[in-house]
């Protein structure tokens, strides 16, 4: 789904991992702010083994070695069957393996154990939004934003909440989330892209164009996905800049000739 950020601090990644990695050391954002912070000395031997396995699983997951990551997180859950963080990591892995019912089951298990966990709520919201369940997703982003543990990744969560609303064409609802995200993470490609989507959807093509220009300064042309290039083409088409439109169309053809976006360009489907 365009514009979702799913792995903290990594561009176009797969969900916030910081709290899942260090969950045993501080409750991963579960508490109300009055609970005593947990340290290594509070952990059982099983929890310590699980943390090591979870760290390994996350490392393999980030490298795209999903089967190895799955094996490690299974071992983590064997060592500590009540770890919400480990269920959350297993949900990520299953999602990337396109095992969607298993991913959902693991998210729900994780949230049953830690219903206020900021990263889990953001990640499950992103999962739902990515799979066309935007209205179900929105409350999870709001829960994540209420948790002080979200502060380190607040820009990403705000972007996700805004992006999900853009998918619903709720441009007025999306804008405040995305403008807050822009203040916190001005160089996040996804936030600039989502704001361009908002203003294009509203018919404010000049402002959409300004965010596409910002985006082009943040990211290299060869890294832009087909949906980003196609939006840029549509914006320039509306602005009547045929030179810029043709340049972006050339990039779309060269890099994403088999994409649905290039097929739409060939049809002249600028208003679909």
UniProtKB/TrEMBL annotation:
Question: What are the boundaries of the signal sequence?
Answer: 1-27
* PROSITE patterns with a match to the protein in the record: PROKAR_LIPOPROTEIN, TPR
Q: Which SUPFAM superfamilies match?
A: TPR-like
InterPro entries per UniProt: Pilus_4_PilW, TPR-like_helical_dom_sf, TPR_rpt, Ycf3
Query: Key word Ligase present in the record?
Result: no
**Ribosomal protein keyword on record:** no
Entries under SMART domains matching the protein = TPR
Q: Which UniProt keywords apply?
A: Repeat, Signal, TPR repeat
Please report the residue spans annotated as repeat (TPR): 50-83, 84-117
Q: What is this protein called?
A: Type IV pilus biogenesis/stability protein PilW
Q: What is the lineage of its organism?
A: Bacteria, Pseudomonadati, Pseudomonadota, Betaproteobacteria, Burkholderiales
